[in-house]
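Slide 14.
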Amino acid sequence: MLLEDRVVVITGAGRGIGRAEALRCAEEGARVVVNDLGCARDGTGYDEAPAREVVAAIEARGGRAVASFDDVRTSEGAERLVATAVATFGGLDGLINNAAIVRDAGALKLDDETFDAVLAGLLGSSLRVSRAAARQMVAQRRGGHIVMTTSTVGFTGNFQQSNLAAASAGVYGLARALALELKKHNIRVNMLAPTARTRLNEDLPMFGPGGLTEATYGPQFVAPAAVFLLSHLCGELTGEALSVAGTRLTTWAMRESFGVVGDDPKTPWSPEAIAAQWDAISRSR
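Slide 15: predicted structure.
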């Protein structure tokens, strides 16, 4: 089993992708901390049932798990979550940041509270839990794996999802920075950018009638990729963004174009010259 005797914390693990990841990690031998507030997709409300149901499902299959209802949008909640892993299972080897909320709105009508809530639910929680987890992993001196969940919206943008796009792009930048900082401690930091039908996005046109179905674009396709990134199979990989869309796997990255260099190192480019050379400046292949 790829994760035998490993301790894995998963946020947002009560439903959807997080639930599938928790079940698959347990099948691979991990002891799992199932963190979920059981809130609505906009971040409101509270329900312990989803996390408890996942724990019960894991235990029914002979695995070991514990539920956590800490709010990972706060530093205190993130630290309590990691403390639960240590107190219950004796340490921490892997983390999947899967928690997120969705509040779609066009940028011109997007109020500050809606913007801040989505950033806190995805980017803020990813920072706070990763920070707490990394501190524990560094203290243990045995390395570890951190998996961030971002979205392709952070690379492409999407209509009426400027807050989610900003949060997702922020997760990419955060993961890249953590990958550099934590490599010396043998902690790998990678990302998943899934396209999967869940309650957070089931109202999008692509998942509507005649569109993509859970049978071919469900969370079950994402979970094995998470196990890969938590296991020794990922080797030295760090700072990578693995996209899973059904059976299609790709990687995403922000890359610099080939660009051009001016003839005179002391003469700045003029706006007119930039316009004239734009095709060469932006050429990537």
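Speaker note: The beta strands are 7-11, 31-35, 64-68, 94-97, 144-149, 187-195, 241-245, 248-252.
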